[in-house]
From TrEMBL:
This is VOC domain-containing protein. InterPro entries: Glyas_Bleomycin-R_OHBP_Dase, Glyas_Fos-R_dOase_dom, VOC_core. It comes from Paraburkholderia elongata. It comes from the Bacteria. Residues 5-111, 152-267 form the VOC domain. Coiled coil: none annotated.
Length: 327
C-alpha cells in the first residue's frame, strides 16, 4: 500500500485561454474542449495538467497520484483524519477519491508506470584534475538549440495549514516517506521505491492551496535556457537560476497567471530504497535555496487563501535572502 508517483494536478481558473497560453509557452501540448483544457508533455499520452475554466478564482481542485494497494488505503484513510468522497462531477470514476485532514482532494489510481525516458547526453563538466571534455566546445551557437520542452511532471508542492499533520497523513495513510523537512514550515515526501527526492511537498500557510509544479528537463543548461525563454515570452516574474539544498536540484521558477509557480528542474536526488534514506531537518536558511537570486517577496504567498499580497515579512524569505546579495 503506497503512493508510487505523481500523475497530474487539476486547477480551477477564471480564464482558461490565459492558462493554456502560459503552459503552451512552457512547452506543453494542449487539448481544449469548452471550459476544460488538458495538457501533456510531448511524447506522453496522458494529461499532466487539467484546467477547469470559467471559475471565480484560481483554486487547487485536486492532485492525482499513482498508487497500489487501494483497498488498504481506502480502509486506513478515515483512521488518519481523511475521508472517502464521491467522484467529482466530470472526473474519472476509476480509482479512489479521498480528502486529507485539511480537505485537500486527492485522486489515487492504480495506473501503469510511464515508460522510462530515453537517456539524455551526459552533462559533462571540466573540473580541476578531472577533464572529461577535451578538444571540443561544450556549447553550440544559440541558433542550434531547439525550444526546451518538459519531459515529465516530477512533483507538486501544496500549501497546508499544518505541515506535520499533512506529512503524517501522507506517510501513514498513503504509505509515502518523509524525505526531508525544514522545521514545521516545509516538508518533502517521496515514494518508498525508485522515487525522486519528493513527489508531494507541503509549505505552511493559513489554508490549502497550490504553490508550484515542477517539470524535469535534461540538464542545468535546459533549466536556465527554458526558464529564461518562458520569462521572455510571458513577461512574468521569476526566481532562478539556482540550486536547492533540499533535493539538490537546479531550478528556475516562473510565476503563472494566478500567482503560483511553474518550475523547470534537473538533477534531483533519487531515493532508490526509502529504508536506506535518513531524513534531515534543515534550518530555514536552507529551506528554499543553497544559492540563487534573492527570493521574490511573494514566493511563499498563498493567493488562494489571501488574494492580495500584504508584503508582511516572510521568515523563509528573510532568512534565505540574508544569504544572497541583493541586486
Amino acid at each position: 500500500m503506497s503512493v508510487l508517483g505523481i500523475l497530474s494536478y487539476t486547477l480551477e481558473v477564471p480564464d482558461i485561454e490565459e492558462g493554456v497560453r502560459f503552459y503552451e509557452n512552457a512547452g506543453l501540448i494542449s487539448d481544449v474542449e469548452g471550459d476544460v483544457a488538458r495538457l501533456r508533455c510531448r511524447g506522453q499520452d496522458r494529461d499532466v495538467i487539467v484546467l477547469l475554466g470559467n471559475r471565480p478564482a484560481k483554486r487547487l481542485h485536486h492532485v492525482s497520484l499513482r498508487a497500489d494497494g487501494l483497498s488498504m488505503i481506502e480502509r486506513v484513510v478515515p483512521e488518519h483524519g481523511g475521508a472517502l468522497v464521491a467522484t467529482p462531477e466530470g472526473a474519472s470514476d476509476s480509482g479512489l477519491w479521498v480528502t486529507d485532514p485539511h480537505g485537500m482532494l486527492l485522486h489515487l489510481s492504480d495506473a501503469p508506470a510511464d515508460p522510462e525516458p530515453a537517456a539524455a547526453p551526459p552533462f559533462e563538466i571540466n573540473a580541476p584534475g578531472r577533464l572529461v571534455r577535451k578538444g571540443r566546445s561544450a556549447m553550440l551557437a544559440s541558433e542550434f538549440y531547439s525550444a526546451v520542452v518538459p519531459l515529465r511532471l516530477g512533483h507538486v508542492l501544496v500549501f497546508s495549514p499544518d505541515v506535520p499533520a499533512s506529512v503524517r497523513f501522507a506517510t501513514e495513510a498513503l504509505g509515502m516517506g518523509l524525505a526531508d523537512h525544514a522545521k514545521d514550515v516545509l516538508a518533502f515526501c517521496c515514494a518508498r521505491r525508485n522515487s525522486d527526492h519528493h513527489v508531494l511537498a507541503f509549505a505552511k500557510s493559513p489554508a490549502v492551496g497550490f504553490h508550484h509544479a515542477s517539470f524535469q528537463v535534461n540538464d542545468p543548461d535546459d533549466v536556465g535556457r527554458g526558464g529564461r525563454a518562458l520569462v521572455e515570452k510571458t513577461g512574468r516574474g521569476d526566481w532562478g537560476f539556482g540550486r536547492h539544498t533540499i533535493g539538490s536540484n537546479f531550478f528556475h521558477y516562473i510565476q503563472d497567471p494566478w500567482g503560483s509557480w511553474f518550475e523547470y528542474y534537473s538533477d534531483i536526488d533519487h531515493i532508490e530504497d526509502y529504508a536506506m534514506w535518513k531524513p534531515t531537518n534543515y534550518e530555514l536558511k536552507d529551506s528554499l535555496a543553497n544559492w540563487g537570486p534573492s527570493v521574490p517577496d511573494d514566493f511563499v504567498h498563498n493567493y488562494e487563501a489571501i488574494p492580495t499580497f500584504d508584503r508582511l515579512p516572510r521568515q523563509m524569505n528573510d532568512q534565505t535572502n540574508a544569504r544572497t546579495p541583493k541586486d
